Amino acid sequence: MAKINENFAKLPGSYLFAEIGRRTAAHQQANPDAKIIKLGIGDVTQGLVPAVIKAMHKAVDEQADPTTFKGYGPEQGYDFLRKAVLENDFKARGIDIDVNEIFISDGAKSDCGNIGDLFDIDNKIAVCDPVYPVYVDSNAMAGRAGEYDVDAEAWTNIHYMPTTADNDFFPAIPTEKLDIIYLCSPNNPTGTVLTKDQLKAWVDYANDNDAVIMFDAAYERFITEEGIPHSIYEIDGAKTCAIEFRSFSKTAGFTGMRCGYTVVPKALVRGGQNLNAMWNRRQTTKFNGASYIIQKGAEAIYTPEGKRQVDDAIDFYRNNARVIKEGLEAAGLEVYGAVNSPYIWCKTPDGMGSWDFFNKLLEEANVVTTPGSGFGPAGEGYIRLTGFGDAEATREAVQRIVALLAK
Question: Using 50, 70 and 90 to split pLDDT, how confident is the model at 13?
Answer without folding.
Answer: confident
